Amino acid sequence: MNNFFIILLHTYMSKLKTKSFLVTTILTVAIMLALTNMTNIIDFFNKGGGADKIAVIDGTGKLYEPLKEQIKIINKELILEKYDGNEAAARKDVAEGKYKGLLELKWNGDNLPAASYKAMSIADSAVPADLQAALQQMKTAMASTQINIAPEQLEKLYAPVEFEKSALEKDAKTEEELNQARGLVYVLLFIIYFAVIMYANMIAMEVATEKSSRVMEIMISSVSPIKQMFAKILGIGLLSLTQLAALLLVGYFSIKQNLETMQGGFFEFFGFGNIAGSTIAYAVIFFLLGYFLYATMAAFLGSLVSRIEDVQQMITPMTLLVVAGFMMAMFGLNQPEAPFVKYTSFIPFFSPMLMFLRVGMLNIPFWEVALSIGILVATIAFLAVFGARVYRGGVLMYGKSNSFKDIKKALQLSKKG
Amino acid sequence: MVLELDQVTKRFGSFTAVNQLSLTIPEKEMFGFLGANGAGKTTTFRMILGLLDASEGKISWDGKPINYKTSSMIGYLPEERGLYPKLKVREQIVYLARLRGMQKQAALKELDYWLNRFKVKEYADKKIEELSKGNQQKIQFIAAVIHKPKLLILDEPFSGLDPVNVEQLKEAVVELKNTGTTIVFASHRMEHVEEMCELICIMHKGSPVVHGSLKEIKRSFGKKNLVIHADFDTTFLMEYPGVTRAKVTAEGIHLQITSEQAAQDILKDIVGKGFIRKFVLEEPSLNDIFIEKVGASYE
Known about the structure:
- Chain A: It comes from Mesobacillus subterraneus.
- The structure holds two protein chains of two kinds.
- By secondary structure, chain A is α/β, with parallel strands linked by helices.
- Chain A has 17 helices and four strands.
- In chain A, strand 1, helix 4 and strand 2 (78-82) form a beta-alpha-beta unit.
- Chain A is elongated and about 100 Å long.
- Chain B folds into two domains: 3-218, P-loop containing nucleotide triphosphate hydrolases (Rossmann fold, 3-Layer(aba) Sandwich), CATH 3.40.50.300; 223-283.
- The A-B interface holds A 1, 3, 6-7, 10, 14, 209-210, 213-224, 227, 396, 398, 412-413, 415-417 and B 12-13, 46, 49, 51-56, 68, 71, 74, 76, 78, 80-85, 87, 95-96, 98-100, 140, 143-144.
């Protein structure tokens, strides 16, 4: 087998087996599962309490039945039960936990429904709110009958105003789509951000470990440093794809499984209901490009230090670039059309996040995406050539100083002649 | 399969690390490469291995340049020792051996042989960081020779080892030489080089100051050592004609003289002055030559 693949596989396999990799993968997959099963989890905990039973003392004798019908529509989990006893006995039953609460119905001065609700705690506002809403509807209907308003008239009165928003740009995302895209882009941006920082760090550490343990001297006498550098970058890239694939697969199937429970609320907010395939594809593309950009930088920065303790210091400026890109992207989530988002999305160090943000949320012309990717690829190519030269000299340098002056020194070492 | 360095110069900026070095190392020879720290040994090795490009001159092996295509025929034990601390000995050696073009099975078999030979069989499944420094060094030696290189470069192979382990490794090196490996051997320990190498080169500040066969060098050095242990005061010999250096010891005096004639003159002079327990004329040691040529006190 070719030396390149031996190193690639060795890097991949030895990292795959490390505890830290297994733990982070299992943890992220667990979080993914928890998120996608949120509805089931909430249901599970609710099941223990069962449906809420409310004792009703109907002082009017007329309101109980219609209210029960009304509540059925609003909240199936809420069960009303007519209570045949006085208020004190009902209170006692509530205290003993037989009922969630006690509802007393009576007429007010205008012959309209009025009620009082008593429960051990009114911290849970959902139940009284549902009861109140049901009663409100009954009251509205009764009051309108009292003042002779026909149901059609009532409907007219309460019908919402027609208000339509539409974007003039062709194919522009609707408000709803934009919100959904925002959630998905938000989550994917996080993944890109963490993955790029984590794996670029891993590369720098890997190189510095080889150097500080001095095994580098043997390595470079058998395989060219440039081959080593790219085998490592690809090996760890493969590792990151493995983790990403595990995450996406588990996420995809879990979401599919839970699709019907996902209507509304949480999932809709994050836009997971109808994931756009192209957004995921762009996420993978921009993640890979971002990874290669920063991994190449991390590799040659890592080759300049002699001790592992110095790695963090060396790659801090690089990490700050990633953080800056991420901050801008977070701001851009709310204003994807802001001019600065547009311009920075062509700067290679930021484009993996900012161009992804734009392509995920807006309908931008394809040439812009292509241009951004082109600039990115060109920068990666330049960094790879430049980085390889620094790496070649850097791995031979030992000493306590580790500043950016060392880049010059490393280039001098690797110079022909 | 001659290793040839032809007028090799390496400059780092304005600093010349190696200056006009020409060496011919014949096949199946053990070549001793000496020099104080910073004399340019490691730089020379790195150029031989192709890790650094020479500023001027040419390095060839068997008429061809050494590069990564020939790496399966070359073994290297760097001065700064190091292996992957977290890897097990077996994984480590197999990985490094495969990078030198060996098949996995062959590497495992060869590893077994070497571990047995160095009596460290029980370490095969231990992590490097769990081993003592001496044992790590044995493992690293195995890593340098497992693929049966034709050209082996050993930079300070015995530093930090106890005498028993030094003997074990020395035997292995001699055996490799006898089976046809060309060995370039750098050391500060003159007695090791003296014992094992027929050809040597002493580097000083990047330039070769002595170069050739050890016997020849000793002969042409001209000076000899005279050791005298006597009961009477011998310090007057320090000023004696033909004496170039002198050192008074507890039991007598050590002299460096320019010729055998001087020894004979001294003997004539001191006979009758008292009891002489020892009077020995010795060949110069490599240590003497090194000190003389490099001018720095060493060992």
